[in-house]
Amino acid sequence: QVQLVESGGGLVQGGGSLRLSCAASGRTFSTYGMGWFRQALGKEREFVAAISWSGGMRYYADSVKGRFTISRDNTKNTVYLQMDSLKPEDTAVYYCAFQDYSGTSYYPDRAYEYNYWGQGTQVTVSS
Question: What does residue 113 show for φ and ψ, rounded to 5 degrees?
Answer without folding.
Answer: -85, -10
